[in-house]
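hiii so um. not sure if this is the right channel but i have a protein structure encoded as tokens and i wanna go backwards to a sequence. like what aa goes where. can anyone help
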């Protein structure tokens, strides 16, 4: 229904503005893929402006989903679409026509005249050589095909020599390639030995070799500047390392078409340093990243090592694949003590039993989950439906929540807590109360048990999850004393209560950190509030990386 309404809205406006000729139909499928019909013309800037006004004024009763509208608005406001509209406007005014359609015949006639000419004319010889070049003849032939709008692969008589000469070239022909290299510059190529000769194993995305585009995966390096290569890749690496300027390579091509780069973006849930990884085949080409960075995976051919670009710092290199990292983490000893609990938490049989009761259902399973990468997608700025504050008891979650609501009640709200003991059947009214706040175009602030994150982190609630971490024990002790001395609370916490808060905060961080979008250490309530408010308001101003399941 949303696709139909958008098609009618956009198409109708274009029909009025452009006389019914240039109509753009946009279809939003379940996967949010935007398609343009085959005979489509991009609408002109005035029409684009009208479309944007229609989108902003779309009634709330439409069947369009919130994420659909955000996605469509982002596309229409993107510089690429606006540039296409400007280009279309220019092309409507400028009509390009071909000078001639039979240029290959003209070239053939000229060559016959040149061959029949007598004498040793240097200019005529040079012109003959240029006109007989295969690349030049292919260019002229392509021009003629475009001029007559004939895109079939039927060779003309004038190009028969090119086709014949190309067919006579054996597929295993040796090629001489000249690459440009600066002294000390890494080429971004790794090798393997195959049949006693070095073979290119991988070419790193964005490297010097990748930019020049002359070498491909599977090519066999036979010689470097006239030096024959043996079966030692290290010898080849050292030789290439010392070269500079133009380096001539004798190569046996693989004739493999490079795969199209995958459009996969990942957010890692762990920190990686290739310098300390004993499994990486080449530490120099490894890519370091931190938890929460965004990685653009450009090559997944190797099942263990992917090529990726860190969009935060712009570097490109190898990262462990999801399969390798999960396999590696499965063999790492868990952070448990002898009684079965996480280190730093309660020990002993009685306390263990109580802990199991408090963390009921799937909390113990959560600790065993192997979190490596999360696939994400880039979305234009938008207001999140919910703001979820997670933390141990006593870290100030409710103070931060109440302060946000009091300062800006038109932007933030919260659910009304139930006075009775909550039962499993009362979950639905709780979700309904969240939707009641969201329907008023406010962000619903929740301070819930970490176990609820599994249900909340979906496209239905679009949460921004903030972990309010406890400070060091000494800082927490001083903060509690200041609050008591100021008369802001009458509840006195013991030393054991403060230690439990710190330990519980560490346990939540270990078990649920893969859900967190932001971590704030509450060592000063005013500073923590300012940071929280700034980060939440920033979401409406900058593009966001969200789980891909929210979009597709």
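sure thing!! here u go:
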């Amino acid at each position: 229904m949303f696709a139909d309404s958008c098609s009618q809205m956009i198409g109708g406006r274009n029909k009025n503005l452009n006389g019914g000729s240039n109509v753009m139909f946009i279809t939003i499928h379940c996967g949010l893929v935007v398609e343009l019909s085959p005979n489509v013309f991009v609408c002109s800037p005035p029409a684009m402006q009208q479309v944007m006004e229609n989108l902003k004024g779309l009634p709330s009763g439409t069947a369009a989903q919130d994420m659909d509208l955000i996605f469509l608005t982002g596309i229409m406001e993107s510089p690429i679409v606006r540039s296409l509209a400007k280009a279309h406007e220019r092309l409507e005014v400028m009509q390009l026509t071909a000078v001639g359609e039979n240029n290959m015949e003209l070239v053939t006639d000229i060559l016959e005249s040149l061959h029949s000419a007598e004498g040793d004319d240097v200019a005529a010889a040079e012109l003959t050589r240029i006109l007989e070049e295969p690349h030049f003849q292919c260019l002229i032939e392509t021009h003629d095909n475009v001029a007559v709008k004939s895109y079939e692969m039927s060779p003309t008589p004038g190009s028969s020599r090119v086709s014949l000469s190309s067919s006579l070239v054996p597929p295993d022909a040796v090629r001489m390639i000249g690459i440009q290299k600066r002294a000390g510059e890494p080429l971004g190529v790794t090798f393997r030995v195959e049949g006693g000769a070095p073979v290119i194993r991988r070419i790193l995305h964005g490297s010097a070799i990748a930019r020049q585009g002359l070498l491909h995966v599977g090519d066999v390096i036979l010689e470097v500047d006239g030096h024959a290569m043996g079966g030692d890749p290290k010898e080849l690496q050292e030789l290439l390392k010392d070269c500079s300027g133009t380096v001539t390579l004798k190569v046996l091509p693989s004739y493999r078409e490079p795969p199209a780069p995958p459009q996969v973006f990942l957010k890692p849930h762990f920190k990686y340093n290739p310098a300390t990884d004993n499994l990486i085949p080449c530490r120099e080409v490894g890519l370091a990243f931190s938890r929460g960075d965004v990685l653009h995976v450009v090559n997944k051919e190797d099942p263990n090592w992917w090529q990726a670009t860190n969009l935060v710092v712009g570097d490109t290199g190898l990262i462990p694949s999801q399969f390798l990292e999960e396999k590696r983490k499965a063999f790492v000893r868990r952070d448990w003590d002898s009684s079965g609990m996480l280190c730093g938490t309660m020990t002993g049989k009685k306390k263990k039993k109580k802990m199991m009761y408090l963390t009921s259902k799937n909390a113990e399973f959560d600790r065993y989950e192997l979190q490596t990468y999360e696939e994400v997608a880039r979305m234009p700025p938008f207001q999140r439906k919910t703001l979820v504050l997670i933390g141990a008891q006593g870290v100030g979650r409710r103070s931060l929540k109440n302060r946000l609501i009091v300062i800006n009640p038109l932007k933030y709200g919260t659910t009304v807590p139930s006075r009775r003991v909550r039962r499993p059947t009362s979950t639905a009214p709780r979700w309904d109360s969240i939707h009641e706040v969201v329907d008023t175009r406010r962000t619903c602030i929740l301070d819930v048990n970490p176990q609820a994150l599994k249900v909340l982190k979906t496209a239905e609630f679009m949460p921004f999850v903030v972990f309010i971490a406890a400070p060091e024990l000494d800082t927490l002790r001083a903060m509690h004393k200041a609050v008591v001395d100021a008369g802001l609370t009458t509840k006195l916490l013991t030393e054991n209560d403060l230690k439990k808060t710190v330990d519980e905060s560490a346990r939540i961080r270990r078990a649920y950190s893969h859900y967190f979008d932001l971590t704030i250490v509450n060592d000063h309530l005013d500073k923590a509030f300012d940071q929280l408010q700034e980060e939440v308001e920033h979401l409406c101003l900058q593009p966001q990386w969200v789980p891909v399941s929210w979009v597709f």
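oh and Residues 270 and 291 are 5 Å apart (CA to CA).
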